[in-house]
């Protein structure tokens, strides 16, 4: 399915926190780590990496949840929906939970991470799989590969 034209909007389950995306995603992913399994009560979390300058909270004040560490997980303080993450040391992007978008029908994970912790039956259509996370030197190729994949779909 083709990606919707920007800007995109989304929000938590109750609607008290809303956001706007004005920059194209860098990468889409599914994370199978046990932390994501517990925070989503599911087999994995689905994320869209958005450049930080292209993401803005437009209503409400998200609260930090999860482990309250250097990586900051943001939730709606009312309905407790896990909305986005700002990973430690990577302030250049926001890891938005894809299902928080008003229309996530276009979403497909390009990579999947932490497959070493995945539930045996959990599968995704991701093009690239990693037992943990990609090496830092792999990201440039992944970002380029994702951009090329999106361009093919849009053509």
UniProtKB/TrEMBL annotation:
Enzyme nomenclature, EC number: 4.4.1.22
Keyword Lyase: yes
Top-rank taxon, per record: Bacteria
Name assigned to this protein: Glutathione-dependent formaldehyde-activating enzyme S-(Hydroxymethyl)glutathione synthase
Domain CENP-V/GFA: 8-140
A Gene Ontology molecular function term of the record: metal ion binding
PANTHER family, per database record: CENP-V_GFA DOMAIN-CONTAINING PROTEIN-RELATED, GFA DOMAIN-CONTAINING PROTEIN
Similarity field: Belongs to the Gfa family.
InterPro entries according to UniProt: CENP-V/GFA, Mss4-like_sf
Top enzyme class: lyase
SUPFAM superfamilies: Mss4-like (SSF51316)
Keywords (A to Z) from UniProt: Lyase, Metal-binding, Zinc
């Amino acid at each position: 399915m083709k990606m919707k034209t920007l800007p995109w909007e989304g929000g938590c389950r109750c609607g008290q926190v809303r956001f706007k995306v004005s920059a194209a995603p860098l990468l889409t992913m599914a994370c199978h780590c046990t932390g994501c399994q517990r925070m989503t009560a599911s087999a994995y979390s689905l994320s869209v990496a958005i450049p930080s300058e292209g993401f803005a909270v437009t209503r409400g004040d998200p609260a930090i949840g999860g482990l309250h560490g250097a990586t900051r997980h943001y939730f709606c303080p009312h309905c407790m929906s896990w909305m986005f993450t700002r990973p430690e040391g990577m302030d250049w992007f926001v890891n938005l939970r894809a299902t928080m978008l008003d229309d996530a029908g276009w979403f497909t994970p390009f990579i999947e991470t932490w497959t070493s912790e995945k539930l045996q039956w959990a599968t995704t259509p991701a093009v690239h799989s990693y037992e943990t996370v990609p090496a830092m030197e792999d990201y440039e190729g992944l970002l380029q590969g994702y951009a090329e994949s999106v361009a093919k779909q849009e053509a």
